[in-house]
């Protein structure tokens, strides 16, 4: 892949002809801008997908992974989830009792 350069113009003060040559295919600046806009939209859509909610997945090792709580999934095996869910009321009570000390992630 090579970059062809030309003299500076009003639209392109750096003097770089933003046309990439790959074999015989020439990509125009408009095409590159359109592709950049498409990729930005796709990136936003993917970011919003994870912000929408929580999803569940069985990992390769057979554990349950919960996605959407933070940057990384929370992954526990079945018996660990069962132990945790068995004390759900205790966890809720603990959260309530320690509300002033606990921070909320925004």
Give the topology.
Elements: E1 2-5, E2 16-22, E3 25-27, H1 29-52, E4 55-58, E5 64-67, E6 74-76, H2 78-86, H3 88-97
Antiparallel strand pairs: 1-2, 2-3, 4-5, 5-6
Outline:
The chain has 106 residues and is α+β, with helices and mostly antiparallel strands. Helix content is 41%, strand content 24%. It has two domains: 1-52, no CATH class; 53-106, no CATH class.
How would you describe this protein?
The chain is an alpha+beta fold and 106 residues long. The chain folds into 2 domains: 1-52, no CATH class; 53-106, no CATH class. The chain is 41% helix and 24% strand. The protein has 3 helices and 6 strands; from the N terminus they run βββαβββαα. The protein has helices at 29-52, 78-86, 88-97, and strands at 2-5, 16-22, 25-27, 55-58, 64-67, 74-76. A 3-stranded antiparallel beta sheet has the order 1-2-3. The longest helix has 24 residues, at 29-52. The protein is elongated. The two termini are 44 Å apart. The mean pLDDT is 81.
Question: Approximately how much beta-strand content do the residues carry?
Answer: 15-25%
User: Would you tell me the overall average pLDDT?
Assistant: 81
Q: What is the 3D form?
A: elongated
Radius of gyration of CA atoms, rounded to a whole number: 25 Å
Percent range of helical residues: 40-55%
Number of strands: 6
Give the ordered list of helices and strands: EEEHEEEHH
Task: Note the main sheet.
Answer: 3 strands, antiparallel
Reading side by side through the largest sheet, how are the strands ordered? 1-2-3
Report the structural category: alpha+beta
Count of runs of 4 or more consecutive helical residues: 3
Taking pLDDT < 50 over at least 5 consecutive residues as the criterion, the unreliable ranges are none
Distance between the termini: 44 Å
- Number of self-contained structural domains: 2
């Amino acid at each position: 892949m090579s970059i062809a350069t030309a003299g500076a113009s009003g639209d392109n003060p750096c003097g770089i002809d933003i046309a990439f040559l790959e074999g015989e295919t020439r990509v125009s600046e408009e095409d590159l801008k359109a592709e950049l806009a498409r990729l930005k939209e796709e990136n936003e859509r993917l970011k919003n997908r994870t912000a929408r909610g929580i999803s569940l997945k069985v990992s390769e090792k057979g554990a349950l992974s919960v996605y959407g709580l933070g940057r990384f999934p929370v992954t526990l095996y079945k018996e660990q989830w069962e132990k945790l869910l068995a004390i759900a009321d205790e966890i809720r009570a603990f959260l309530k009792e320690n509300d002033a000390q606990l921070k909320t992630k925004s």
